[in-house]
């Protein structure tokens, strides 16, 4: 009788809490995943390639950026560098979360493969009033992972039937999605200076030098602008 | 079910870089405390990259795209993410028909 075993009950309760907490984020990610798959298919990626990318990379922002600038053959170093820039925030997230989730080193190396903005935010919130267990993390992060792989794959299958994405304005969907994501970083003075500088430098570099240099040049100019625009005194 | 070799290598490179960023924090947890300008620069990385990726499409493709991007930006501060995307796509289709 598993139900009477208190350890099993505890695991089940933690797993259910994880699923409950991640549900809104997972549901919101479904249409985004479908869109990713469809546009990736429109750019010439096969369904197998989309599934493989979602499974191994599992990072929405980096995948969107890769697809937006996708060309054949894929520019490996450029993609790796853009991926690094977009995902380097994980270092801070992992550093902050790891003391709050008690796992062995082996468990950590597995668990942090599934680190995302959403699962990190939920785990940090839960850590405010109770310890974050492996069962909670596994249910939450695993659910988001399965959800992403399935929805992007489905999007790729459906997208290959849709034909030219520009006909439906779908080529603009990523631009609109990115504008929505950028707005999520707020309207502080530093953010506005960052965004303005990055946009101007990227557009100029793209016009006068060409892709894919605009991504790195614009991003570095924006980061430098944020450094200069921020107050000197630590406000953390 | 085909996978291009260069695409596979690109995916593997992206996956390796991403995994390293995910586990790197485990090894610096007690040392990494950013403050002031360094923290501002670090926090600016995601929006700076996202903007750089879309700037050519949004600003230099044509008037339809530039105006649609402006409309999308206004919507982005008021609507949820998916509604923002819908507004952006609808505006670009309309503007392309008009301009």
UniProtKB/TrEMBL annotation, chain A:
Organism in which the protein naturally occurs: Microvirga subterranea
Similarity section: Belongs to the AzlC family.
Principal subcellular localization: membrane
Pfam families noted in UniProt: AzlC (PF03591)
Alphabetic keyword roster: Cell membrane, Membrane, Transmembrane, Transmembrane helix, Transport
Signal peptide annotation: none
Protein name: 4-azaleucine resistance transporter AzlC
Xref: PANTHER family: INNER MEMBRANE PROTEIN YGAZ
An annotated GO BP: L-valine transmembrane transport
Subcellular location(s) per record: Cell membrane
Transmembrane spans: 22-41, 73-92, 135-162, 168-185, 213-230
UniProtKB/TrEMBL annotation, chain B:
Pfam families (alphabetical): AzlD (PF05437)
Keywords: Membrane, Transmembrane, Transmembrane helix
Keyword Transmembrane: yes
Cited InterPro entries: Brnchd-chn_aa_trnsp_AzlD
Record field: transmembrane: 6-28, 40-60, 66-95
Top-level taxonomic group: Bacteria
Protein name: Putative membrane protein
Organism: Microvirga subterranea
């Amino acid at each position: 009788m598993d139900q009477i075993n208190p350890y099993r009950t505890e695991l089940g309760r933690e797993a259910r809490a994880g699923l409950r907490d991640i549900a809104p984020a997972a549901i919101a990610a479904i249409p985004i995943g479908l869109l990713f798959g469809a546009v990736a298919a429109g750019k010439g990626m096969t369904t197998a390639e989309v599934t493989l990318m979602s499974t191994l990379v599992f990072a929405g922002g980096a995948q969107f950026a890769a697809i937006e600038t996708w060309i054949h053959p894929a520019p490996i170093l450029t993609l790796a560098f853009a991926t690094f820039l977009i995902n380097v925030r994980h270092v801070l997230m992992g550093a902050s979360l790891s003391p709050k989730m008690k796992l062995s080193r082996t468990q950590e190396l597995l668990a942090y493969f599934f680190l995302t903005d959403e699962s990190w935010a939920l785990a940090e919130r839960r850590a405010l009033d109770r310890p974050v267990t492996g069962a909670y993390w596994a249910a939450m992060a695993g659910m988001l992972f399965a959800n992403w792989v399935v929805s992007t794959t489905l999007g790729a299958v459906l997208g290959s039937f849709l034909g030219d994405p520009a006909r439906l304005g779908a080529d603009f969907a990523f631009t609109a999605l990115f504008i929505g994501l950028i707005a999520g970083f707020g309207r502080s003075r530093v953010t506005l200076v960052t965004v303005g500088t990055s946009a101007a430098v990227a557009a100029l570099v793209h016009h006068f030098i060409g892709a894919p240099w605009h991504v790195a040049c614009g991003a570095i100019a924006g980061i430098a602008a944020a450094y200069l625009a921020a107050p000197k005194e630590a406000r953390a | 079910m085909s996978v291009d070799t260069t695409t596979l290598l690109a995916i593997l490179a992206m996956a390796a870089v991403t995994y390293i960023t995910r586990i790197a924090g485990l090894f610096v947890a007690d040392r990494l405390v950013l403050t002031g300008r360094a923290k501002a620069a670090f926090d600016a990385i995601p929006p700076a990259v996202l903007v750089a990726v879309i700037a050519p499409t949004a600003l230099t493709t044509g008037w339809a795209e530039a105006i649609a991007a402006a409309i999308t930006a206004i919507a982005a501060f008021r609507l949820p993410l998916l509604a923002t995307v819908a507004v952006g796509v609808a505006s670009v289709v309309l503007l392309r028909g008009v301009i």
